[in-house]
Each structure stands twice: as C-alpha cells, then as structure tokens.
Amino acid sequence: MNASAPKRRGRPPRQPRDNPDTRDALIRCGVVVLTEQGFVATGIDGVLKRVGVPKGSFYHYFDSKEAFGQAVMERYAAYFAAKLDRWLLDDHTPPLLRIEHFMQDAMAGMARHDFRRGCLVGNLCQEVTILPASYRELLQAILQSWEQRLAACLQRAAERGDIAADADCERLAELFWIGWEGAVQRARIVRSNAPMALFGQEFLARLPR
Predict the structure, then answer these.
(1) What is the pLDDT of residues 117-150, one digit of tens each?
(2) Measured torsion, CA atoms of residues 47, 113, 137, 183, in degrees rounded to the nearest 10
(3) Which of 42, 58, 66, 76 has its CA 20 to 30 A from that of 121?
(4) In contact, 204 and 100? CB cutoff 8 Å
C-alpha cells in the first residue's frame, strides 16, 4: 500500500498581491533596465524574467506599466537624492570640492558599468514626448530637487567667499544639470568619462568670482 499522501488537484496558490519583497525586486530591476535602455524599449516580460517572476504576475504588483515606471522613477529619485546629500552636505569639505567629489563619484560609476548605464532621469527626458503625460511633472519635480540641492551648496560657497557673493546660485544650478545630463549622454556614446570631466572642469572654472 502506498502511504504517500495523494496530490491535491487544482491550481497552485496565487502569489500574494502585496508581497513586498517581489515588488521591491521588480522596482530594483526596473531601475537597472531603465538606466540602460530607457522606458519605451523596456519590456515587462524581460523584467519579470530577470527577477524570476512568472509571466502574468506583473499586475499583482502594479496596475500598469505606467504605474511601474512611476515607482521606478521614485525609487531612483530617492537613491540619487541620498547620493547628492552624501556629497553636497559634507560639512567637513569646502562646497566646491563637494561638487567635484560628486562628479568624480559619478564618473567612477559610469566606468564601473562600462558606460552601459546612464542617468535614468536623463534617459526618460530623451523620450518625454512619447511617455505617459504623468511622467513630465514627475521628471520636472526630480530635476528641480537636484537643482535645489546644488543651489544650496553653491550658496554656501558664496557665503564663504569661494564664489561671488551675488552669484545667482539657482540659475547656476539649473545650468549645471542641463550641461551635466548632456555630458553623461556623450560619455555613453564615446565610452569615456572625458565629456563629463570636461564639463565639470569648465563649470567650476567659470563660476563667478
């Protein structure tokens, strides 16, 4: 007599809709994929395969690809804001040197990933005309938060006398991110940090004194 218990028939139990570990893994994978290839070229099936989640499970965690993209942008924004704060709020380092350290860290990251990954926000800005309308406001808010952080660091430099006391720090911060995002894109094209280094050196050298 076979003592083994009979197999139960029917479908296997569904994965919980609110499994935080799986949702987090999908978002983290989305950050990697979108920094490499942007939103439009990113297929949900490819993300699911990378994470090891069965096809059809995506909508257990996100209502749509648009909602998934928003979650990925928010995660990247939080990560990048923390990175900026780590460098730009370093009270033990002169403000302009903080900016230089941030740029050096960014260049090291680009080289570490063999220039395959760029800036997720910069990638999405390149596609903004074909992205969901909701993304435009989110991208603007993220960029403005970066500008505010850099402007505060530049203002500290002005207070110390490192740059002109009447320097328009908000305008300079906006200029920095316009140029820096372009330098990151060029670095991916030429597979070299040279464009980023050139822009960084010129930005710092041309600050009003």
Answers:
(1) 889 999 899 888 888 889 999 999 999 999 999 9
(2) -150
(3) 58
(4) yes
